[in-house]
Amino acid sequence: MHASHLGVLLSGLLVSAKSASASSILFSGGTIIAFDRATNSLDVIRNGSVLVTDDRITSVFAGSIPPSSVSIPSDVEEVDITNKILTPGFIDTHRHGWQTAYKTLGSNTSLVDYFNRFGEFPTAANYPFTPEEIYYSQLAGLYEALNAGVTTTLDHAHGTFSNATSSASFQASIDSGARVFWAYAFHELENYPLSEQFAHYRSIFTEAPHLNTPTTLGIAYDGFGPNPNQEIISTIISLTHETNASVLTTHSVQGPYGITNSPEDFAAQSLFTSIPPTTPIVFSHASFLSAVGAQLLRTYNHTISITPESEMHYGHTHPTSHLILDRASIGVDTHFTFSTDILTQTRMWLQSVRRLLYAEVLNRWQVPVNNPMSANQAFLLATRNGGLSLRREDLGIIAPGAKADLVIWDGGTGPNMWGWRDPVAAVVLHGNIGDVEGVVVDGRWKKRGGKLTDERFEDVKMKFAEVARRVQDRVVEAGVGLPGEGERFVVSGLEFGNSTVVDVQVGEGDGYGGLFL
Ligand SMILES: *[C@@H]1O[C@H](CO)[C@@H](O)[C@H](O)[C@H]1NC(C)=O
Ligand SMILES: *[C@@H]1O[C@H](CO)[C@@H](O)[C@H](O)[C@H]1NC(C)=O
Ligand SMILES: *[C@@H]1O[C@H](CO)[C@@H](O)[C@H](O)[C@H]1NC(C)=O
Ligand SMILES: *[C@@H]1O[C@H](CO)[C@@H](O)[C@H](O)[C@H]1NC(C)=O
Ligand SMILES: *[C@@H]1O[C@H](CO)[C@@H](O)[C@H](O)[C@H]1NC(C)=O
Ligand SMILES: *[C@@H]1O[C@H](CO)[C@@H](O)[C@H](O)[C@H]1NC(C)=O
Ligand SMILES: [Zn+2]
């Protein structure tokens, strides 16, 4: 081998050996959207630096010369972020990672149709995923999240169809390197009794494959109301204590749906005071949350996850959610049907709240003069509020002591980001996933130079493509199953109604075309 080639090789090896042992990264010269705990607000530092040591942010300072109190390790990895924006990673507080393989099958689905075709129960009964299918579906879904700058996900993991699929979903979460609050969903399935689910959850906890990774173990359950089963619930409460569950989450969709799981249900069963104080409760959607429910959330310090796009796509809506933003964060939900990134969700939520509150003024025949919700508030919902939903003061912020979960936004290559002055507005209102140049979780690179760093990337891409094709064939074959004449919604017993279809086309037909499956 030619000597200079050897030299290149050797220096390559040295570089990689150095970065493998380096436990610190110094980002410098960029705009940092930091958080000031003293003033409880965002703090924009222009030409600032962030020092990461292992999994934590150890220092945040203006300029590139550290103050005398900060020592920079000699083997630090220096990353120049001049002209770029550094933000905390986004936090998604509601998602079902295993469903990635259903992508595009639900483009015009309704909640009723979803329950019949794509939910945990029809899937388990009619076309259960194999462990391999769950694994790649979950992993590909987490790649999607990481690629989009989402570093933390609360996964309501209801792909728990057997011990093997449950373990596969958990293992994929761990293998992704993302920060996953993986909430084992307990549900009544024909072929997988609850007793076995509980035993398996305990065995996962004991075996602890997630030890020393950013993934934690939590619980999901949707049977708190109406008609709760006391015995099951008391087992679940015991399990939260036994395993110090990192989160307890439930789907709450009230109104005509009647899938209550409401704060009132929790209060009626004294559940707020019987779970461990370290276990936060996240009520996903909280559609039709009442004033009393909101008060309970404030009293007991629990939160809701607003999933703006899903609540519009499916029709559970969110008529009161804007009134409880002090106890709210943002989630995605069934990302096989729509966008997977928290940035898009947050922007949709911001603009829909504005529309709603402007309408209140217009409806009194007045002309709105001020703007009801700020880009800053939207940014906080997507970041710090997610951390607070998970009772984690160290997530969703850039501040000393916080976890090193970071996103580098390319501040100017794309014309969409040219000319910004306010970096918060630039990200919230002008940014897109294409601007996410780098992602760090727990102090480790997950995306760099615009590409995911996972060495299994190509392999996962191929395996997932096969899995998605297989899974989709099964569902398409089974066909669409809208409810028949005279049927009622099973939970609330209410009648079904048709929405007005607005599709229209110049010429023949109404534009309500077929699905291109
Ligand atoms: C950033 O701060 C450093 C001092 O810490 C200074 O040398 C440098 O010129 C500054 N860069 C810009 C673009 O202002
Ligand atoms: C599932 O796991 C639990 C706990 O380890 C065990 O008791 C049960 O037998 C397992 N079920 C099967 C079918 O292997
Ligand atoms: C329970 O977990 C929380 C973090 O979720 C941690 O702060 C606490 O120390 C744990 N408690 C026990 C008893 O392990
Ligand atoms: C609620 O929980 C958050 C997150 O842990 C914490 O910052 C806050 O102080 C708590 N508030 C109350 C009133 O306990
Ligand atoms: C909704 O409209 C379809 C098509 O016109 C019809 O077949 C169905 O019975 C209607 N459903 C209800 C609940 O009215
Ligand atoms: C979605 O579109 C297909 C094809 O046009 C139709 O058969 C199906 O009923 C629609 N589903 C819903 C829930 O509207
Ligand atoms: Zn959901």
UniProtKB/TrEMBL annotation:
InterPro entries: Amidohydro-rel, Metal-dep_hydrolase_composite, Metal_Hydrolase, Metallo-dep_hydrolases. Residues 85-445 form the Amidohydrolase-related domain. The keyword Ribonucleoprotein does not apply. Keywords: Hydrolase, Metal-binding, Signal, Zinc. Its cofactor is Zn(2+). SUPFAM superfamilies: Composite domain of metallo-dependent hydrolases, Metallo-dependent hydrolases. It holds the Pfam family Amidohydro_1. Residues 1-22 form the signal peptide. The keyword Glycoprotein does not apply. This is Amidohydrolase-related domain-containing protein. It comes from Podospora pseudopauciseta.
